[in-house]
């Protein structure tokens, strides 16, 4: 990577050229990874692959691009995601990008040209080194810019580079309508926005005309509907937004309860048979589902909670106290709401503004949708993330160290590039453009922290793990601000610096003091802390002399899609999901593997190769380390993950956030996952501890609390509902729903609807994997399947008896009103022998007899829209799809972010067999690591299904990412 050399005590850093004009002030660069006269592209092996976008449910082809060029060490997932999401140009035309080289050149050359134009480089030779080192870093997955950079830079469309926006709204209809419009333009560009509604007068205040004001909660409805209509960036995911309200706003109670009431609607509609899953056909009828809600609390409020006292709600127009509430009761109400539906989150106002570098220009009142970017209203932030595993050095003998020098130089390189992008970037509104150019907010961060900690033998919830995380974060931010001061000397400080010089330098001292006070733990983190101390000393010295180029430098973002682009095992600050991963193979197919970080951790902990092999084999079989042969119980915690038998405790997540927070300009995108057994009191404890530990923001998710998630029946019965009984939140259920004292509760039982003596029917003969059978399906005269008979093998055999019993069970269920589509969704894709080819042209392959039967029944008895949603089509429909492109993305749609489940493989002759080992290794039901973890660990993850390819997503910060196609639930 590049190094930007600076005039600090260490001679390896960049020096400002003396005695020249503006161009001579630019920075000098040294080569770190590249060789003079050799382009980084010439030092890797390239190969051609075919990327075919498919829907895993029916195998239909949604998109394909053949012959794309990537380095041979890039994984299938990374190739799929970059090809489908980031390559520009209409598919099938000469303008379409076909190589990673073209993508990198499009972006990196744009950065170099802008840097030369604006005087960032001391000479053309320095500009060339910058270009080569930046290209090397992306090529080798050392870091990545945020998605808007890959979408937009170097294209003919607006050069939007920022993923995070904060808006503002005043108490006027004109401003409110501007809010709707500005949000819509940001969503259209593929980004998310947040704002604070507290300036809008409450429903308890009067208008100038004498009537009552509508209040912010009312105006949220219109914005929510707009966000649900505008698909972010033209893609299939919904818009991402954050809505914040101050705790002293008179409408705070209505705001807190907003989503709770809507969640009750979802439950009622779901029980009535409507499709209320996230992304379902009927979920759009429910309000307030497109935003994350957060309450902004003050230190005074939190102290009132601790003391049990009350506080005042203030009129927006006059500031007078119009009502007093019990602070503890309000926090309890927040906890009950978050326990029930995951909203609202909490933001700690005084802590946020205590670390604010520009208070003379205004307070920080809101955040972006994922809560990591927090700065002035009407501003934006562009992000980039470092892959921490690229900086772990291993001497081969089990001795590890963090590569401080490379990490420092790459951070300097990336911060320089990020600042250059502001020079040429476009913005969705004039106000955002002016403010972002005036304050130049940047958000460098990292991914793969969870993998780094495990590989170095640190438990995620341990003092050693937190020390290493804090040291790396401190070094990153200190280096970023040092480079910002060097950039200020070369091209000038940000426009707002003169007015905010004193508070900016005060915040730098706060960071340095936190670094000095941090606890050192072992030989891994201690050298990193020492380097961070030196960096902060340089920051104080150079900042006093030069000022700073950027009002902020670092955040910890979700790194969903770009984390997959970099082949990271973990996103942002998150721990590992599970010890066994789902891996797509370059030759086609997939297999399950034990995390590659596990052997590194075992070597670090002192285990011999033979012991490690036995432990890895145990993990592969059981999915966890409990009872692994030879593994010491005191080492179990090193392998704790987000899911599984030994999942990390909620407070462990909070403590990790607290370890990193003092060394970040912004905040951290992270949701604290809590088990279904958690109580409302547990949520209150998390909120209080987050404030005491100095966090800026926090969100919780209690397992099973959202209806719009795929949940198992066992979880719904024994998990969340049991938690309600014990957690004290049952009192929030309306009293009218409870039976009167002494009255027997009404029982609602289904009524069996028997078929008449004469009934229409269809008899189908079939063959599945060589096994023959007959199916007779009888209907009600007014349509609707009511009876199924299956005949297989000889009468009296076990198989024939089981088929008879199965037929009776299904038939009785149908007659009691179980929808056929429910059976189809449950039994299709069930895999067991016999399986294989069939003699049915509409269902050429079946994973089992049951899979075939219910596919055939769906084709015969379900309407097209219903079975199409389940991925079941006739041969004619599939042919029409191929000929007309009715389901396939056309060339005209190339501006959309093409998303779906991709199978990527090197070119091979048609009909080539996929490796047998891969076919046998992965369970048929698993399509990514989340689904594999569910199967391996015998649990059900609370995560939405991907809007594009239908697989289960995994947590990335405050949002979700699909590791199959790169789609996110709201983060770029």
Descriptors for this entry?
29 helices; 10-stranded mixed β-sheet; Vitamin B12-dependent ribonucleotide reductase; disordered N terminus; TSCPD_dom; 972 residues; 3-stranded antiparallel β-sheet; alpha+beta
Overall description:
It is built from 29 helices and 28 strands. Strand 14 (392-394) and strand 15 (400-402) form a beta hairpin. The strands form nine sheets. Strands 5, 6, 7, 8, 9, 12, 13, 16, 19 and 20 form a ten-stranded mixed sheet that branches. The protein has a domain at 761-873. With 972 residues, it is an alpha+beta fold. It is globular, with a radius of gyration of 29 Å.
Q: Please give the share of residues in helix.
A: 25-40%
Low-confidence stretches: 1-24, 232-237, 708-745, 887-924
| Computed CA radius of gyration, to the nearest angstrom | 29 Å
Quaternary organization: single chain
Number of strands: 28
User: Which class do the helix and strand fractions yield?
Assistant: alpha+beta
Q: Estimate the strand proportion.
A: 15-25%
**What's the main sheet like?**
10 strands, mixed
Biased composition (Low complexity): 1-11, 729-743, 905-926
Protein name: Vitamin B12-dependent ribonucleotide reductase
Keywords: Cobalamin, Cobalt, Disulfide bond, DNA synthesis, Nucleotide-binding, Oxidoreductase
Function: Catalyzes the reduction of ribonucleotides to deoxyribonucleotides. May function to provide a pool of deoxyribonucleotide precursors for DNA repair during oxygen limitation and/or for immediate growth after restoration of oxygen.
